[in-house]
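Why do we care about 3D structure at all? Because function follows from shape, and shape follows, mostly, from sequence. That is the central idea of this module. The next example makes it concrete: a single protein chain, its amino acid sequence, and then its structure expressed as tokens.
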Amino acid sequence: MLASSAWRRGFGALADVNVSFDLTCRHTQLSPFAKFLSKHPDIPVIVDHLGSPVLGDGHVQEVWLDGIQALAALPNTFMKISGLSQAGSHWSTSSIRPLVDQVLGAFGSERCMLGSNFTVEKLTSSYNAVWMAY
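And the structure:
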């Protein structure tokens, strides 16, 4: 999307209609999006699903965390703590806690929100398990 001039123009037009943008992307795309979003401070952006971390791989975690910190540095970005199964289909409260702690540390609780993403989450857990994890 970032390579498309038409998409970039369309994104910029969001400021004219006073709406927010939900960003769902891979962890490798977080930093490039942060660079792009820094040029659009008037458009609120909600990063979905913890920024799509992947459990277990140290290098991947570094890439994810760098992107999270770059996005959190922008005052117009917010984090939706949701999509826990995207981090790993066998996630648990203890495996997801460090990711949530890092997101809360970066964005602060005032710029975070919860979401269930339950239609997808029910493939790996119950509704009760997701909310109990929160």
